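Morning!

As promised:
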Amino acid sequence: MGVNLSNLIHPIPIQLKDLRDKKAAIDAPNVLYQFLSIIRQRDGTLLKDSQGRITSHLAGLLYRTSHLVEHNIKPVYVYDGKPHPLKKQILEKRREVKEKATAEWQEALKIGDIEEARKKAQQTSRLTPDLIEESKHLLDTLGIPYVDSLSEGEAQASQMTQDGNVDITASQDFDSLLFGSPFLIRNLAITGKRKLPGKKKWVEIQPEKIILADVLKNHGIIHKQLVEIAILVGTDFNEGIKGIGPVNGLKLIKKYGSLDNIIATKKINQDNLENYEEVMKIFLEPKIIRDVSLRWRQIDKEATIRFLCDEHQFSLDRVKSALEKFEGFSHSLSQKKLLDF
DNA sequence: CTTATCCA
DNA sequence: TGGATAAGG
């Protein structure tokens, strides 16, 4: 998922309180997908209401958002638009992986291997149009804005950060750096210990900040060259060159200056590079909306409770205590209104 | 994922 | 009391 640039990036650990009063453009598919992957029972079953409808995405969104507003961070969720045709290939590949994982999940359940079952179940998550609509409805009742992008949500979020509509982009992926986001926050709101995938090791996780200008300066490259490194390594829109990871990609770009020059040397396998100019365009000239207006409204507690508790059987106590975290946030909104007036 | 609870 | 573990829908 997303581009692998981790070896080139040295994030700065931060705390949630460092982001107080900041506006954050959150990659909505990225968080919703995470919720669907992780908010499950021990055997991998998703949380569901009495009618069997999935609720894991709503639980995650409620608790995550309440956590953010408790720290007076202003979230805006940015959704994907139409996928670029070059993304079809990776989407198809992911679909196949999910089909395989679904079978392996059932198999693990049959032999009673609960841990394996959960692991496989996590790989089966699908973000359907229904789940997306329900998440938007919850945001509406919470008074939290969202944006429907024309293309990639990460592209839209990055532009909003560049334009100053928001202060930071939040995602687990590095793609927003390719889209030119000056500031990226990973692990927004995530704290505590996490299990390393596939291993029995636990690591401490905390929010971290990545400054695009620093990444470029550290390696002595410009933004376009970072995109070229990503294309060598492989993105959601192209496969990348076998044997080239972020470190070798950087070396090649530093040595030859550009992807064009590397290609001219004929020293690398060029089978996967036929669309590279189009991929460059996806990152450097994405389809985005320039004049977004963001409005954080007062929470509608009654509507939230109707939706989560009455329609989807959330516990009233849990929802109420999550909604209490909106108190200070709502107050600061009405204060701001008075000041504006 | 976040919150609730269990137990040293 | 706080770190590990279960539950949540």
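Residues 88-110 of chain A form the longest helix (23 residues).

Hope this helps with the figure draft.
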